[in-house]
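Q: Convert this sequence to structure tokens.
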Amino acid sequence: QVNLVESGGASVQAGGSLRLSCVGSGRNFEKLVVGWYRQVSGKEREFLAAITPTLAVTYDSDSVRARFTISRDHSKNTIYLQMNSLRPDGTAMYYCNALGTFGRGNQVTVSP
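A:
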């Protein structure tokens, strides 16, 4: 069982940056692959990036890879998503996921 809590969401202008955090708890959290997802209102949740316990990373697309960076701090049981050059189409709820469990999400709003 795992518990995930996201934070760092905010309202920003296009071109701005945000860093989201996901704090995990539960047995062996440090051994889990953790991913970031987002869901635009009225659309399906989509995968953005994931990181393994050994810090290998995967991104959904070159576009995401160019602007977003996923990282991990084992000492804090925290996964980060650094988002740069944000665009209005990035307005969404952002979630982290491990073992099929999602956190409650954090809202990011990007204004033109």
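The chain is about 5% helix and 50% strand.
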